[in-house]
Amino acid sequence: MGLEDLDIKESVLDLIGNTPLVRLARIDADFLCPIVVKLESMNPGGSSKDRPALTMIEAAEAEGILKPGDTIVEPTSGNTGVGLAIVAAQRGYKCIFVVTDKVGKEKVDLLRAYGAEVVVCPVAVAPEDPRSYYSTAERIMQETPNAFRPNQYHNPNNPRSHYETTGPEIWEQTKGRVTHFVAGAGTGGTTSGAGRYLKEKNPDISVVVGDPENSLYSGGSGRPYLVEGVGEDFWPDTYDPEVVDRVIPISDGESFAMAHHVTQQEGLLIGGSGGTAIAAACELAKDLTENDLVVVVIPDSGRGYLSTVFNGQWMSTMGFSSGNEEGLTVADLLDEKDADLQGLVYLQPTQSVQEALTVMEKHNISQVPVAKGDMPIAAAEVLGSISKSWILAHQGTQDELLNTPIEKIIEPALPAVGLGTSVDLVIEIFHESSALLVFDGGRPKTVITRADIGENPSTEGV
Asked: Nearest-5° angle of CA 256, CA 257, CA 262?
C-alpha cells in the first residue's frame, strides 16, 4: 500500500520553512504597536540556517560541483553547520566544520552528533590570520580531496533562499501589513534576501538590523563580543547595505538580559542573538504607532546556550549578573576601595619580557594579564598572563629572555570572577591563584589580589 494519500513528508528536508509567527504580548505591552516573532527554531535543524543550507547545496548539485561522497567544508558559528549536516545526511556527503572557541560546547557536540568533524579556532584573531576560522577553512579545503565550500558569506544562494522563502512567508502571514522587519545580520542573508523581497512588495517597509556593539555593521571595529552568530568583522558579499534602513547597536548585556526576559515572560527559549534582535525591535517600537507591525526573526532556540547565556555561573563570572549571591560581592569590595582604584593594567603579546618587568615595577604588581587590542578589551581578547615569578623561573640567558616577546612564554589567563561573584567564593579561588581578573558586562575591568581581600574590613583576618 502506498503513502501517496497520507500526510507524510518524504524527508526531513521537506520540513524546512513555513515557520510560525507569534506575538510577544507581554514584551510589547509597553508599546503602541504589536511585536511578532518568526520562530526559525521550528526548522528541523533548529535555526534559520536550514534555509540557505538546502538552497546552497541544491545549487551546487545543479551546477555539478557537488557529488555524493564529496566533503563539505564550512566555517560556521554552529547553526549553518547543523543545516548543512542535515542535508548532507540525506544526500550522502561528509562534513568538516570550522568554529571559533566562542561557540558553545552544545553546538560543537551537536555538529559531531550528526557525524561531522569539527575544528575549533581562536576568535580573537584577524580574518587574515592563519589561525582564524576563515583561513583554517581555506587550508582544509586545499588539503581535502573533492571538497566543496558553500561559502555562506559570499554565496548568492544564501540570500536567495530567504528571498524565495522567508520574505514571502512573512508577507503572506501578515497579509501585507508588516511595516518593520527586524533581524540580526551575520552573513546578512536574512536581511538582504527577505528584506529585498518585502521592499519589492512595499517600498515603505523598513528593514532594521539589530547588531552587537563592536560589529562593523553598526560602525564598530569588529573586535570580539560574546553574542554568537550575528555581527561581523568584515563585509560579506551576502550583506546588501542598500536594503537596510537602520542598524541599532545592542550590547552583550542587553542581548542576554532580553533573552532571559523573553524566555521567562513569553515562555520562548531564545538565544543571545534573538535577544539582540528583540532588544533592537523594542528600541524601534518606542517611536511607532498602533498602525505599525514589527516582525522580528528569531534565528534559533536558547537550547544551544545553556552553558553560557542560561548558565548562572557563566553569567556571573562574565559580570552580567549577581548570580543571586548572598553577602559581600566583588562589586562591594571594589566600592569599598578608594575611588581611584587602579584600572586594568595589561600587556600586549608582542611586548618584550623587559617591558613586562618595567610595567610590573611601575605599578608595583607581580602578575599582569596579556591581551590583544586597546581598551576597552573584550573577554575573547584576553590571551593569558605573565608573572614575575614565571619570568625568573625561565631558562636561558638573561639577555635572551628580556628580549623575548611575551607571547613566547605566556602563562594561562588569570582565573575570572564577575562583579557579582561572592567574596566567599573569591577567597576559595585565591587558594589556587594569587590574582583574579574581574569582569564587568563581559569586559575585563581590573585585577584583584589577596591583598585586596585582606584590606577589606568585612573580611579581616582571612
From this structure: 100
Q: Minimal CA–CA distance to 182: which of 199, 206, 161?
A: 206
Domains 18-42+160-305 and 50-148 are alike in CATH topology: yes
Residues sharing a CB contact under 8 Å with residue 52, sequence separation 6 or more, in sequence order: 80, 83, 152, 155, 157, 158, 159, 161, 162, 187, 189
CA-CA distance, 297 to 295, in Å (whole number)?
7
Q: How far apart are CA 111 and CA 33, in angstroms?
A: 39
DSSP state of 229: S
What CATH fold (topology level) applies to the domain 50-148? Rossmann fold (3.40.50)
pTM to 2 decimals? Answer: 0.89
- Cβ contacts of 266 within 8 Å, gap of 6 or more: 24, 25, 26, 27
pLDDT digits (tens, 9 = 90+) for 316-327: 999 997 555 567
- 408 in catalytic set: no
What is the sign, positive or negative, of the torsion defined by CA atoms of 219, 24, 172, 152?
positive
Distance (Å, whole) CA 423 – CA 429: 10
Query: What DSSP string runs through 88-141?
Result: HHHHT-EEEEEEETTS-HHHHHHHHHTT-EEEEE-SSS-TTSTTSHHHHHHHHH
Integer Cα distance of 426 and 422 in angstroms: 6
User: What pLDDT digit, counting tens, does each position of 331-387 carry?
Assistant: 888 887 655 556 899 999 999 999 999 999 999 889 999 998 888 888 888 999 999
Ranges of each domain in the chain: 18-42+160-305, 50-148, 324-459
Task: Report how far residue 292's alpha carbon sits from residue 193's, in angstroms, rounded to the nearest whole number.
Answer: 22
Residues contacting residue 410 through CB under 8 Å, at least 6 positions apart: 349, 370, 383, 384, 385, 386
Active-site entry in 38, 49, 102, 445: 49
Contact in structure between 178 and 171 (CB atoms under 8 Å): yes
Q: Rounded distance, CA 99 to CA 103, Å?
A: 7
Pick the CATH number of 18-42+160-305 from 3.30.9.10, 3.40.50.1100, 3.40.50.720, 3.30.1490.20: 3.40.50.1100
